[in-house]
């Protein structure tokens, strides 16, 4: 049965509109339901962290925002507009590539594997998108890239190629590169999992700084509970493609209410 799209607004408006909304979103691969009628709002400027066991759907949430996955049901909105759909003749219809491309520009992402352009220096990595995609002049792209490399503590390495940088340094450049595109929402997917323990703090320090100084909306998936507790405004515990429990980090980590949350937290400690 096809879905009744009239249940979904064409836009989210007003001062209380969230920056990101998952509205009744379901996703399955064959028989496997990965997200089960998920409803999730992220407020402008909020740092929202997703935790949960492997396979609970955490990465799928981020992949959907990056338009790397289609959805089976529901609608995702970003910055007031539908992401998964577009408005045609006054109704919501599935988005096409052009719509996806326009909406994707609102979203910056950093992954476990940083995927910097290997043939470009740190500075060039941060200038490429703004020049090629946003159409900035080289001068203004360079100025912005230099500011961002400064912010992530990589100014002195700006002329180095990725192969000459450590994992932590590459990840910091990757964060600067994503920010150079001026996204509305930043996604961090396990950004510290591929790093050696001694450089993890370099990267978490940069993310901490972003939380403190920028009014960006951020969503993060992490296995580092201490870090999640430290920097998040809200933590969502995912289980079986649903939010099992959510709340302020002090509440969720300090006094979890659901049995599954308690079990998960005691197992990862
Ligand atoms: P998490 O990030 O919480 O570990 P994921 O969102 O990566 O979980 O995956 C949720 C579930 O979806 C897992 O059971 C995974 O095996 C399954 N899955 C993810 N991508 C695919 C795919 N392309 N095809 C089939 N199953 C997939």
TrEMBL record:
Q: Which domain of life is it from?
A: Bacteria
Where does this protein reside within or beyond the cell? Cell membrane
Output the Gene3D superfamilies linked to this UniProt entry.
P-loop containing nucleotide triphosphate hydrolases (3.40.50.300)
According to its UniProt entry, this protein's organism is Mesorhizobium delmotii
Protein's name according to its UniProt entry: Putative transporter subunit: ATP-binding component of ABC superfamily transporter
Q: What GO MF terms are annotated? A: ABC-type amino acid transporter activity; ATP binding; ATP hydrolysis activity
Q: Name one Pfam family in it.
A: ABC_tran
Q: Which gene codes for it?
A: yecC
Does the record carry rRNA processing as a key word? no
User: Predominant location of this chain?
Assistant: membrane
Membrane-related topology note: Peripheral membrane protein
Q: Keyword Transport, does the record have it?
A: yes
Record-annotated ABC transporter domain positions:
20-265
GO CC field? plasma membrane
Q: Which family does it belong to?
A: Belongs to the ABC transporter superfamily.
State the organism's lineage.
Answer: Bacteria, Pseudomonadati, Pseudomonadota, Alphaproteobacteria, Hyphomicrobiales
| Keywords, in A-Z order | Amino-acid transport, ATP-binding, Cell membrane, Membrane, Nucleotide-binding, Transport
């Amino acid at each position: 049965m096809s879905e009744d799209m009239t249940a979904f607004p064409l836009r989210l408006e007003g001062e209380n509109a969230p920056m990101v909304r998952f509205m009744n979103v379901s996703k399955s691969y064959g028989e496997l339901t990965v997200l089960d009628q998920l409803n999730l709002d992220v407020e402008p400027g909020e740092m929202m962290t997703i935790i949960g066991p492997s396979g609970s759907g955490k990465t799928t949430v981020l992949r959907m925002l990056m338009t790397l996955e289609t959805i089976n049901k529901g609608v995702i909105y970003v910055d007031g507009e539908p992401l998964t759909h577009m408005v045609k003749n006054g109704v919501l219809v599935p988005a096409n590539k052009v719509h996806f491309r326009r909406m994707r520009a609102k979203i910056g992402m950093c992954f476990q594997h940083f995927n910097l352009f290997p043939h470009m220096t740190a500075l060039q990595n941060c200038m490429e998108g703004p020049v090629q995609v946003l159409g900035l002049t080289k001068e203004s792209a360079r100025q912005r890239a230099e500011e961002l490399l400064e912010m992530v503590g990589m100014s002195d390495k700006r002329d180095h190629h990725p192969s000459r940088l450590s994992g932590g340094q590459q990840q910091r450049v990757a964060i600067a590169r994503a920010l150079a595109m001026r996204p509305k929402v930043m996604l961090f997917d396990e950004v510290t999992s591929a790093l050696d323990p001694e450089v993890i703090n370099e990267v978490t320090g940069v993310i901490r700084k972003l939380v403190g100084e920028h009014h960006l909306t951020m969503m993060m998936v992490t296995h580092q509970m201490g870090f999640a507790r430290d920097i998040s405004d809200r933590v969502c515990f995912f289980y079986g493609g649903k939010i099992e429990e959510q709340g302020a980090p002090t509440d969720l980590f300090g006094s979890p209410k659901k049995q599954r949350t308690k079990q998960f937290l005691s197992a990862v400690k």
